[in-house]
């Protein structure tokens, strides 16, 4: 993947039909998704449980774009290799997941995968200042992680702008996740985000039988974000 700062839409399959992941992934890609975002939750770091490495391995053959795996788990280091072997293209860990996020990013890079670091809404931008040379992406959570369909937290816009300034010319993406829709997409894009994760706002109203709705939803988010950065 070559680095570019154009707007990328990464639907979160947390909002997909859990009985149909293969078809859902193929449908969102056919309808314009740039990346596929996989939310891994452990029932400990966040109050919900989702996908272990075997599930991610099962998704892999259906993904032709880029599989971005967001680990909302603690501890995280013991599981990095397993998610890398399962086929993640990028692995994102939380800065709050343990005392050594620098070591965690080194461990992700050692697998040959792209490395991301994520911040919960209560964590300041400065928590990743000395990690930027070790990562390919900073993920700003715009909801408290654990569930789809929550309300966007507006205070995070200032954090995105601070990170954009802190990152400068480094080839580091800013991803946002939580409550992203055509109303909030322009705000995050203007603040400096380039990878927009959206679950409910992509899957709402559609299905594998009616995938055109996914395309319409993806285009609405992309167009709103791009209009704000022109
Ligand atoms: O990481 C997540 C929750 O922890 C989800 O990716 C996020 O909430 C997206 O869902 P929605 O777009 O419905 O808010």
Automatic annotation (TrEMBL):
Gene3D superfamilies: Aldolase class I. Its cofactor is Mn(2+); Fe(2+); a divalent metal cation; Co(2+). One of its GO terms (molecular function) is D-ribulose-phosphate 3-epimerase activity. Pathway: Carbohydrate degradation. It is an enzyme of class 5 (isomerase). A divalent metal cation binds at residues 37, 39, 70, 177. Keywords: Carbohydrate metabolism, Isomerase, Metal-binding. Catalyzes the reversible epimerization of D-ribulose 5-phosphate to D-xylulose 5-phosphate. This is Ribulose-phosphate 3-epimerase. It comes from Paracoccus simplex. The gene is rpe.
